[in-house]
Amino acid sequence: MFMWVVNLGEPSLPFIHALLWELSELHFHYDLLALNHFINAAMWQNPDACASWQAAYNAILLGEVVGGMWDSPLTGVEVGLFLGNVMNSDYVVCINAFYSFVTSWPNAPTTFSEELTTTSLEARAHDVSTSLQVFYIETFFAYTGRPPVIPRRVPVSG
To answer: What global pTM score does this model have?
Structure first.
C-alpha cells in the first residue's frame, strides 16, 4: 500500500494497520530463518542444502515485498502460511514449502504422506496446516522461551 505521510504526529488508521502488519510479517520471517539457522547450523555450510532451504523459504513468503501489497489497498483477506483454503494455489504452495523447510528439524511432524494439491480435501489441508502451525509454535518456544509472532490476517484499508 503506497501512501504519502505528511505528519507522523497523527498517522491515519490505515497507515498504522499497514505498518503493524509489515512489522509482524518481517518479525515472523526473521524468526523463522534464525530458528532454522540455529537448528541446522552445521548444514548451513553445505551450499546444496542452503539452496534447497532458500527455495523453500522463498516459497513460504509470498512476494518480494512483505505482504506484496504496497501498491494496493489492504484487503482484510487471509493470506499466506497457515491461512486460506486449499482451493487457493498460493496457500497450497506455502504449506508444502513450509513442510519441506522444517522436515530436518527435530520431531518434525509426519502428517504428509503426499503433498497437498488444490484437489486435496479441505479437512486434510486444515489438519496439515494446524499440525505444522502447532509444531512451529512449540519448536520456537522450546528454543527461544517465548511464543513466536505469527501474522494472522491482513487489515483492511480505510
So the answer is: 0.73
